[in-house]
Design a protein that fits this description.
The protein is α+β, with helices and mostly antiparallel strands. It has two domains: 31-115, RNA Polymerase Alpha Subunit, Chain A, domain 2 (Beta Complex); 124-227, Beta Complex (RNA Polymerase Alpha Subunit, Chain A, domain 2). The protein is built from five helices and 15 strands. The longest helix has 20 residues, at 9-28. It starts with a helix and ends with a helix.
Length: 228
């Protein structure tokens, strides 16, 4: 045993000396504090559920430690990951987020902003709703609308259950009919249904607005004629 220890004793002593010097250098080195913007990732969202509240995508982190270590710490290495495995619908608070940071032992987290996050999970629900076409502009006095025909006339939405149940129609972007004397056809998008609700498929609606021209003149003129 002694023989093994004594083998290459000079190299071993030299290595130990350098290790002690390095330790004193690191521990005695000037300490700094620096701020980072840590990306936040939410992992393993349970099937059938979705996040239904605003969760910050980044967390402001203040880290203190030896100057050398801080200078070598890349911003991309400062990131947080929160595991949602096994959670049920409702609000869950996550605290002590600094424990999710994988930092060298000599580095310490001095502040987190925000210090905790709340994650609200809701059941995903689907619903079919009618399309309502928005018209923009005025027709000439001798014309009127004979009908408005969206295609498709209904669309499917999906999202957070509490939001989906409040939505009863899908509204299009405005269709311009100002001054039209013939049928108007347009391809328009649907306005976003809600913050935590989306269309099951990307929706572009084909709209036909039937324009009827009154060849005998505007209704007021016809009424005057019948009154004579």
């Amino acid at each position: 045993m002694v023989k093994i220890i004594m083998e290459n004793w000079f190299l071993k002593l030299l290595s130990l000396t350098f290790a002690v010097i390095l330790w004193f250098f690191v521990m005695g080195e000037q300490r700094l504090e620096q701020g980072y913007s840590a990306s936040l990732q939410l992992r393993n969202i349970p099937e059938g559920l979705m996040i239904a509240n605003d969760v910050p995508s980044t967390i402001d982190v203040r880290i203190s430690g030896p100057r050398t270590l801080l200078m070598n710490l890349k911003p991309s290495e400062v990131r947080l990951s929160v595991d949602l495995t096994g959670l049920k619908a409702g609000v869950t608070s996550f605290k002590r987020l600094e424990e999710q940071l994988n930092l060298p032992t000599a580095l310490k987290v001095t502040r987190l902003s925000p210090p905790a996050i709340d994650v609200r999970l809701e059941a995903i629900q689907k619903k079919i709703i009618p399309v309502r076409v928005i018209l923009k502009g005025e027709l000439p006095a001798v014309a009127h609308i004979g009908g408005v025909y969206p295609n498709p006339a209904q669309v499917e939405i999906e999202g957070a259950k509490s939001q989906v149940k409040k939505i009863n129609e899908a509204v299009t972007d405005p269709v311009e009919i100002d001054g039209a004397m013939a049928d108007v056809e347009a391809s328009v998008a649907l306005s976003p249904p809600g913050q935590y609700v989306s269309f099951s498929q990307k929706q572009t609606i084909l709209v036909k607005v039937a324009i009827v021209v009154d060849t005998e003149g505007p209704p007021s003129a016809q009424e005057e004629k019948h009154g004579e």
